[in-house]
Amino acid sequence: MVKLRLKRCGRKQRAVYRIVAIDVRARREGRDLGKVGFYDPINNQTRLNVRTIVDFLEKGAQPTGTVHDILKKAGVFEKLRLKHSFEKLLITH
User: Fold this and answer.
1) How far apart are CA 55 and CA 46, in angstroms?
2) SS in 3 state form for 16-79?
3) 10 — phi, psi (to 5°)?
4) What residue ranges do the domains of the chain occupy?
5) Which CATH superfamily is domain 2-92 in?
6) Please, are residues 17 and 36 in contact by the beta-carbon 8 Å criterion?
7) DSSP label at residue 12
8) pLDDT band at 86 (very low <50, low <70, confident <90, very high)
9) Where does the protein end up (predicted)?
10) H or E element in which residue 5 lies
11) Residue 13, helix vs strand vs coil
12) Phi, psi for 43 (deg, rounded to 5)
């Protein structure tokens, strides 16, 4: 199973995190399947590759609690919902 979770980077007392798609059985700093974003809690900055995140979510990837909150704040789930409703509209017509 694939999860979207945080991978710690940066130096001591100055942590920044990459948001990565990674196998559940891998360590926190283990090999990831793809980097999909960046989160800096100190400066409150977030950069997301929304297209890649939506692709992973459509394939069944599950975000962890913290990543879910970050994605919700960025509006990724709304984009995913709009994409699905648009695809249903195309299929029905």
Assistant:
1) 19
2) EEEEEEEECCCCCCCCCCEEEEEEECCCCEEEECHHHHHHHHHCCCEECHHHHHHHHHHCHHHH
3) 90, -175
4) 2-92
5) Ribosomal protein S16 (3.30.1320.10)
6) no
7) T
8) low
9) Plastid, Chloroplast
10) strand 2-11
11) coil
12) -95, 0
Q: Residue 44 above 70 pLDDT?
A: yes
The one-letter amino acid code at 68 reads H
Task: Say how many C-beta atoms besides its own lie within 10 A of residue 47's C-beta.
Answer: 12
| Residue 11: DSSP 8-state | E
Most distant CA pair in the chain, distance: 56
Per-residue model confidence as pLDDT tens digits over 4-22: 999 999 999 999 999 999 9
d(CA 90, CA 46) in angstroms, rounded, equals: 33
Do 62 and 77 touch, CB atoms closer than 8 A? no
